Amino acid sequence: MPEEILKAEVREKVARVRAADIVVGIPSYNNARTIGQVVQAAHAGLLKYFPDRPALVVNSDGGSKDGTPEVVEQCRLDTQALLLVSHPLHPVHRFTTPYHGLPGKGSAFRTIFRIAEMVGARACAVVDADLRSITPEWFDLLLRPVLDREFDYVAPYYKRHKYDGTITNSIVYPLTRALYGRRVRQPIGGDFGLSGRLAQRLLTRDVWTSDVARYGIDIWMTTTAIAENYHICQAYLGAKIHDAKDPGSDLSQMLVQVVGSVFSLIETYEGVWRSVSGSLEAPLFGFPFEVGLEPVPINRGRMLAAFQQGIRDLLPIYQQIMAPSRVKTLQDCAALPPEEFSISEETWAAVIYDFVLAYHRRVLDREHLLKSLTPLYLGWVASFARQTENESAAQVEDRIERLCIIFEQVKSYLVTQWPLRAAEKRRAP
Predict the structure, then answer these.
(1) What is the CATH number of domain 3-285?
(2) Lower CB count within 10 Å: N or C terminus of the chain?
(3) Which long-range contacts (CB under 8 A, 24 or more apart) does 76-81 make?
(4) Which residues partner with 262 through β-bridges?
(5) How many helices (H) and strands (E) in the chain?
(6) Where are the alpha helices (DSSP H) in 297-392?
(7) C-alpha distances out from residue 102 to 289, 295, 399, Å
(8) Over the stretch 130-179, which tens digit does the pLDDT of each residue have?
């Protein structure tokens, strides 16, 4: 890993710390309103749960204009208000540094992992800077499985409103679970723990100058950890409260970025997912207590209208991607009255696999391909929302579980339709 990713003054700061068992990273960009609470929670968690381990809190900032780094530097840490089991043997060091490289979380993570490598950290936790529900306990849950149980990757497990995280619930979780065989419920959660050895391994990859580093770093790390057989678990963190948006607004580019990263990784790990059948649980640490959740607004009518218009306007594209029978099924769905509108789980899973195949075959420009998925995604969410309007969070989770099973069952379609590589063609009878 080239030293040049850290400026000289940053390396000097790290050198003064010398060594740390734990590094907590907080990537940020214009998070002055919330980052103070995140830093305080990290400081309190480290003092309470790891008083005998030297630790470092690093804010990796992307050029904030609202004074975010100043908030971190000036954050008042009132240790007198903490109830500690034992007196801390080491102070918790803290500093903020700008990251360099491509804009996006990937460059922030790279900076954090490089600092963790320099101080010889055994465990690293990274949390979002805009969290409003973070508590000191999060750091115990994200770090202890690494330090005491030798896990390499700790994915977050949140309680979320039934309409929060719909890209995860309808595409990313079912698809990654079916492909790689592990039930990691929040593969793009944003808050995670990892071992020093995994952080060092990730640093050696050539992904840091790619679009994946800019837009899909969370799913890249999760997929890498699963596909390369690292020791994986989940930590129950309660509620993740953040500024959620209506799933039907301003999401086309987000869908392109996230789903594009997932599809790109499918090509990278083709040799892994082809032979995977079914899925296994990932161990869960923490007690899954019930929490109050903020409602997520949703406009079903607008999403349905976008789906219907997409079926009309993008029909020539869909005809290149999907079989005539699938296109006809979607057209029939678009013709249903709003009170009856529904897309089946089997149809939705097949549509996603059709788009995976079209992406791999480069049927058309990949960005245009992924953007054309947006109306269909909105149609699926509108259908899901109509069916679950009066259902509890537990009932909705059962529906997502059924959808995942359908993705696992329909996966054989992807395997049989995926083009064989040259070497495999030569071996085929």
Answers:
(1) 3.90.550.10
(2) C
(3) 77/39, 77/40, 77/43, 77/44, 79/43, 79/47
(4) none
(5) 19, 10
(6) 300-313, 315-321, 324-334, 345-361, 366-388
(7) 39, 34, 38
(8) 888 899 999 999 999 999 999 999 999 988 888 888 999 999 999 999 99
d(CA 62, CA 103): 7
Is residue 101 scored above 90 in pLDDT?
no
- Name the 3-class secondary structure at 289: coil
Length of the chain: 429
> How many Cβ atoms sit within 10 Å of the Cβ of residue 250?
8
Half-sphere exposure of 141 (CA within 13 A, CB side): 24
User: How many Cβ atoms are within 10 Å of 232's Cβ, its own excluded?
Assistant: 20
Domains of the chain, residue spans: 3-285, 300-421
- Sign of torsion, CA 193 199 202 208? positive
Q: Do 307 and 375 touch, CB atoms closer than 8 A? A: yes
Query: Which pair of tokens denotes residue 415?
Result: 């395997």
Phi/psi for 322 (5° steps) reads -120, 160
Distance separating alpha carbons of residues 164 and 246, to the nearest angstrom: 8
* Cα(119)–Cα(113) distance, integer angstroms: 10
Q: Checking DSSP bridges between strand 284-285 and strand 232-239, what pairing results, if any? A: parallel
Calpha distance 166→384 (Å, rounded)? 10
Per-residue pLDDT tens digits for 339-377: 999 999 999 999 999 999 999 999 999 999 999 999 999
pTM: 0.89
Burial of 323 (C-beta count, 10 Å sphere; 0-12/13-18/19+): exposed
